[in-house]
Design a protein that fits this description.
globular, mainly beta, 5-stranded antiparallel beta sheet, 5 strands
């Protein structure tokens, strides 16, 4: 699986995997969070959701157009996006 990281106001990971409808699987991440592991508080990055994104090209275009894109590595862009 290839991973394409897109930094918006909240980091987004786009994978090379697709759902049953052929939509790219994306995950949103909450960086620098806190959580509990066993009995200790730990620093962690949380995945807040994972899903197949309908019409990803339009979604990404709106991210860019609204000036919310901070960084993306075009060389790692999955072929299905």
């Amino acid at each position: 699986m290839k991973i394409w990281t897109v930094y918006t106001r909240q980091p987004l990971i786009v994978t090379s995997e697709v759902d049953k409808s052929g939509n790219p699987i994306i995950a949103s991440i909450k960086p620098n969070g806190k959580g509990r592991y066993e009995v200790e508080n730990v620093s962690s990055n949380f995945i807040t959701s994972v899903y197949g994104r309908n019409n990803f090209s339009e979604y990404f275009r709106r991210i860019v157009q609204s000036d919310n894109l901070i960084f993306c590595d075009k060389q790692k862009k999955p072929s299905n996006v």
